[in-house]
Amino acid sequence: MIQLDEMNTGRIRHAFYTRRGGVSKGLYRSLNCGLGSGDTRKAVIANRARTMAALDCDAGSLFTCNQIHSATVHVIDNRDRPDAPPHADGMVTFLKNIALGVLSADCAPVLFSDPADSIIGACHAGWRGALNGVMEATVEAMIELGSRADNIQAAVGPCIGQVSYEVGPEFPQPFLEQNRNNAAYFNAGAREGYFQFDLSNYCISRLSGLGLGALYRLDCDTCRDEANFFSYRRSRLRNEPDYGRQLSTIVIAE
Q1: Paired sense of beta strands 166-167 and 195-197, if any
Q2: Contact, 109 vs 159, CB < 8 A?
Q3: What are the two backbone dihedrals, phi and then psi, of residue 58, each rounded to the nearest 5 degrees?
Q4: How many CB atoms lie within 10 A of CB 201?
Q5: What are the counts of helices (DSSP H) followed by strands (DSSP E) for the chain?
Q6: Mean pLDDT, the chain, whole residue set
Q7: Per-residue pLDDT band at 6 (split at 50, 70, 90)
Q8: Residues 6+ apart with CB under 8 A from 98
Q9: What is the pTM of this model?
Q10: What's the CA gap between 180 and 31, in Å, rounded?
Q11: What is the mean pLDDT of residues 189-206?
């Protein structure tokens, strides 16, 4: 579990979990929190309960989405249930004892905290969601609940590193059409015509234009660090049939 002391403010707690400390076996060893994986449901539920216990939360506190690589953000209120996840890639809430969770295995989990107004958010920022504005949509949803942008802190969690993220010749174009300065997030790849994309710093660049109070970034590479992280890209390179998902979560504690 990785935490940023600056983000644990007052009653708001958060965690970026690694793959360590769970009960899953084989490809999913050990803290696989993805119900959409091929792991046993019993193991995943046990792992998710462990993540909540580490934050002194009930097992039923955790809300995650059916993530669809979108810019859709859902407001969690009293009508929502953990067993009926929304089809979205971001969530926000002002409710206490509701843990907003992001599942990832190379995409960037981004957690948001507004301790002044007791509002939190979380989003799943793969390249598609980040490009289409999921982080901005999450901040806007928090503002609609009563936050001020300069009270919000955001942290970009563990994701695939630039050295591991090879993309094809067509990949940079939508980023460059959006802003020519986005060329800074593409290095030449080892193969001619290919590039290495810096997802983490691209996310930071998008967040930096929102007037937030503080930004943090964990310098990890989920693809290279097999001991600590699951990775979709690594599983594909090895022709493995599936992969685990790590959890990142934030909660307003009672």
Answers
A1: antiparallel
A2: yes
A3: -70, 150
A4: 16
A5: 6, 13
A6: 96
A7: confident
A8: 61, 63, 76, 251, 252
A9: 0.97
A10: 40
A11: 97
